[in-house]
Amino acid sequence: MAWLRLQAVAAVLALLAAAGVTHSFEFHEATVDAIQLGFRNGSLTSAALVRFYLDQIRRMNPLLHAVIEVNPDALRQAARADAERRRGMATGALHGVPVLLKDNIATCDALNTTAGSLALLGSVVKRDAGVAARLRRAGAVVLGKASLSEWANFRNVHNGWSARGGQTRNPYVLSSDPCGSSSGSGVAAAANMAAVTLGTETDGSILCPSSFNSVVGIKPTVGLTSRAGVVPITPRQDSVGPMCRTVSDAVHVLDAIVGYDKLDAAATRTASKYIPRGGYLQFLKKDGLKGKRIGVPNEFFQGVGEKQMRVYKQHLATIRKHGAVVIENLDIATGRQDIVSNEWTAMLTEFKLSINEYLADLSYSPVHSLAGIIAFNKAHPIEERLKDFGQQNLILAQNTNGIGHVERAWIRLLKKLSANGLEKMMKEQQLDAIVAPEHYASNHLAIGGHPGIVVPAGYNEKGVPFGICFGGLQGYEPRLIEMAYAFEQATEVRRPPMFKP
Ligand SMILES: *[C@@H]1O[C@H](CO)[C@@H](O)[C@H](O)[C@H]1NC(C)=O
Ligand SMILES: *[C@@H]1O[C@H](CO)[C@@H](O)[C@H](O)[C@H]1NC(C)=O
């Protein structure tokens, strides 16, 4: 009997050896599912995973400037996650998984939350942002903070520069634009400097850097994820979402961060009706394109280069082959230019109100208002590169006087532009989604509070990545995930970065 058992063990060992099983975990490009499998089969600990990403950050951040701060508590959190797992207390896909947060997402720990600006360095938050609190409850490890475009359009920073983070670079082609404002999140995900990351979007700030860095970005319906504790631009459009290497990873993160938050009550209550029973994982379907009606608005594809256009045409053929009805040559009655000017006017007023509210809620801060930020920049022109990026738009915002008659009219106009534009077309054509290159649909999605998902679509002649966006109406996340996942599985475009000059 004992001899038989011994023989069986020997046979298994021989099989393992023959299969070349080394028991070692492959850290590069690790997915959340692989990580959980590694935890279960004993080839991986959360501590080992954190050490891997800290090492990646140490090696690559001097080049890429994607990370502003690493969490001195990350290894301790990982050890706690490992201990919980040994006691059988680990639940959920993100347990023990290291997450990098864009630096405008507050954490009440050793990490600073500064939106990349020296003006906010030393500010102390009262509590975790709503999404950060959810990640902690899910057992995720907070790895650190990702760099971003400092104050984005308000300082004409579009390319991922911030005073604290420096110039974030694209890991595929170092000389090319990583896009913003969630540049650090996109770059860190692309270059394996974190397992998963969070970004935020007001208009294009998740979709664009996801596209330019060949990662999957989900900009959720506004209010699906809490904005409490996030350095704001406007509550009318701000949204927090995942930026990850795969659709599946992004959906795991989405599942963890959606839901009601009493500190962002109105928006999260309204949007929580969209959260499906059982979460979003059920929509990872290989045949998710089957039977979908997908519109292709002309406007988005104007100005796309010839080679890139050929790739998109191939993708449309693939989408058709997988059972979707693709309707080309559609027109949206509202043009992007109509949106941009009106959106900007409303945003100037809303930004002043929201940033002042954020600053007022801090338990300590070196600056207490937008006026204080402007004065700080003026007093630190070199560090804040005032010559290159200016702050005229911060000053324009400062000169606004709250939401009155005129501002309410702008906001009504934006709603109308959305209702008569994207929403009308999608309803008339009974579309499940529109597709667009890169982030070109972001204006339409922004003003309606609508969701979008970017998936890697290709690389241009120089090796610079570009994505494809599936956009829908509020609450369309389930079907967008079906389409994005099916597309990703059918095309398998993403490859790790090459660090070309
Ligand atoms: C455990 O799972 C990982 C996949 O996450 C795999 O790479 C590794 O080889 C597995 N190890 C064992 C001992 O089965
Ligand atoms: C936060 O900022 C302070 C400077 O105000 C710095 O000393 C500290 O190291 C920063 N924290 C982290 C985790 O980097």
UniProtKB/TrEMBL annotation:
InterPro entries: Amidase_dom (IPR023631), AS_sf (IPR036928). Residues 49-437 form the Amidase domain. SUPFAM superfamilies: Amidase signature (AS) enzymes. The keyword Signal applies. Keywords: Signal. Residues 1-24 form the signal peptide. PANTHER family: AMIDASE (PTHR42678), AMIDASE DOMAIN-CONTAINING PROTEIN (PTHR42678:SF39). This is Amidase domain-containing protein. It comes from Triticum aestivum. The gene is LOC123051057.
